[in-house]
Amino acid sequence: MIEKMKEMLGKVEADYADLRYETKQVARVTLSKKEVRNYGSTTGDGYVLRVLRRGGLATVCFTKPEQADQAVRRAVENADVLSAHQKEKKHIAPGEVVRATVKAPLLEDPRQISLQEKLALVKHYSDLLFAQPDIANVELYYNDVYRDKYFVNTEGSEINEELVTTKLVGAIISQVGELTQTARMAFGGSDGFQRVRNREEEALRQAKIASDLLKAEPVKAGAYNMVLNPDIAGVFTHEAFGHFSEADIIRDLPAMKEKMKLGTKLGTDILNITDNATMPGQLGYYKYDDEGVAVRKVKLMTAGVLTGRLHDRFTAAELGEPITGHAIAEDYRYPPIVRMGNIFIEPGSASLEELLSALGDGLYICDAMGGQTSGENFTFGASYGYVVKNGKLAGMIRDINIMGNLYHTLNSVKLVGSDFELSEFGGCGKGQTNIRSCLGGPSVLFENLTVGGR
Amino acid sequence: MMEKLLKLATQAADQAEIFYNEKTMDELAFSDGKLVNCDSSLSSGIALRVIKNGRMGLAHTCNLLDREDFLRQALLSAENGMEVDFTLPHTRDLPRLELYKPAVEDVSKESLIAAGNRIISYIRDRVDAQVNVSFGYSTGSVGILNSAGTDLHERGSGFFTQAMLVFPGTGSGLLTFKTGRSPLDLEDADLDELVELFRLSKIEIVPPTKRLPVIFAPLSLYALLSRFEAAWSPVNIHNGVSPLCGKLGERIVSEKISLTREPFDLELDSASAFDAEGTPTRRLTLIDKGVFSAFPTDLNYAAKLNLEPNGCAVRQSLEWLPTANAVNLVLDPGDVSLEDMVSGIKEGILAQFLMGAHSGNVLNGDYSVGVSTGFMIENGRITGRVKDCMLSGNVYETLSNVEAVENKALNLGIHKLPALLCKDVSVAGK
Fold it and tell me: What pTM was computed for the model?
């Protein structure tokens, strides 16, 4: 494959060019109310060509090898259009020439397990959950995604890396009369099928939460102090801060670039935030990004001060900052963009009891149900929570959605827990889907976040 | 090539269907007044669906290298696939829709750059702001062949232009856009409106926490419509988990609301004479003056629910089996202008963009969303931009409280929607 790609790339006249080819195989089993909805595997493949000519960088994605000449012509034309009209020319930051083959680090390879066995496991969880009190419906989605990525560039890099992601996600729906409530379960990771086996205890814990939620009170609207558990603190870190650590977002928002200069104090002294996709075993693990750069650990915030940013080779050159290996594409249909790999707040020293005691009166919010960023504002939903009175859990609450503002919220972190967990669900939808975007952290005490409610 | 595959699949399975598509797309974007992107994509794919021994299977590929292997994948999928009891349609003699406008092929990047620069100068002459402008244009085709003899093919084109003004120091802002099948211009009137609202957005206001009237502008209505989407999904109705189960013929929202799927409105993106399974499309009123009157179906769930398929099958991508969903929706305009809506409000919110619409108890109709772009209305005029503001409620309750529907609908590409004024929405702020 590499030789064929080098031949295609050889036809490009450019200052720099790279070509990515990948195949993606997805095995899928989904079950809705005990009925099989999807069973099988699908395959896709395609190419992404990027061409830099006289400061113009253009991308052409194409499907068929016979389109290669057309793709080269278009990419060159597009780059020339950009070069002719761009005031600021694009430059590429220096990177090492890499020749590597990287196999997915798997304990149990999902590609070696039959679809029948996958279906049997999903049915097993479904039967287990349906046997629990108040459970009216269970929707389970299993998939494993195998991406076989080939990358060559005009500097001489030749890389083949496999990424295998296994996930079992479930929505557990409880019902009494007309009231329904949902709890989620998510097992999976980058290191194999064993991640989705033997998780019955956690599945049952979520079924109990779904049932308990039927008796919970809807949260009242207003501003609260609150402790977030690791899962939702991770979503907070991703939505509220992480996206603004992505250099392409900052590059496109000059007024924010000014506010987000490295060295700026934006958070409280106890706040340390890191992106580390090199940690083995977690969902976001990879070795080389989609520009062939080895990913590295980046300390994004140290004692409340901005100390690092996530980059591709072009944003690094533009902002004059080090390359970090965070150019990631969803798959063969997309050019890479800057993405978080595995973001978290570094743990502190407080126990959960100490966090709740420091909170006094407020909310204890648990488990994420999706989040979104728009400008400096963000929202995230929570699966469930509790009213906290005088440092003690009072009643359970539901229907929780939280909103905040980047600049205020980083300064409202008052105490950081000693616990630490990384999510097995993750994921991010910044234009493209990144199923391996990992997040997590400790429990964290915040002041003054807005909660919607009726 | 497709015929050979279909023949092979028909011999091996009881029923077979091939869905294929091809698309060429170009995009051009300016950020902060500077040209930054000029990219293209040439994509295509094939999905093979088979039904064998009452079970359905699917395979997908981009490059059909090995026909036999591709068919094997589909048959393996059908071994334990979903149990189904429907027959693929034999569709022919459909009306020919003018979905393809050759003018898109004549678009030059130079002309778009000139148009982009004009928009940027026009805005910057009037207000000091970050201006982002983008253009996208495409041509493509889809086709369906099946073992019942259907052989359908449609070619289409698309064009999109958008201008955004970014609020200083943030990433959110104000948008104006146009979408259609041939090249379109943003007109001065569109830009003037944008500039005027931008000027009003300089003052930031945290609204009080209380129940207030809220105008949901067309782009914000996604947060409400997505609740209906979950509720009228035939899967959720079949599973008995939708709040709309058994509600056909009943009033579910205000009589001011009428919502119709218009497959023949050519200005909308998903206009087509046939759906993703080859069933002929038709006009379908889902909500008729507040009464729940129909829900979208595909072949599979129409059969399970003992209904006629109504041509609403869509494919979110070729990697997934078709499902039923209502796109190309038109919400009937009312009789009040947006200006009159605003001037009639003593204290309220104009919501333009909402965030977090995907979280919460969607199926129940609950929403609790952040306002990323919205305005405070006081004594009949817009007094500033809201910040730290959330709106919450239940779609059935909120849309039962519709006081007015705007007198024109905005073409969003996916739907055409007017603004809605709803009273008594829970607002969280200070």
Answer: 0.92
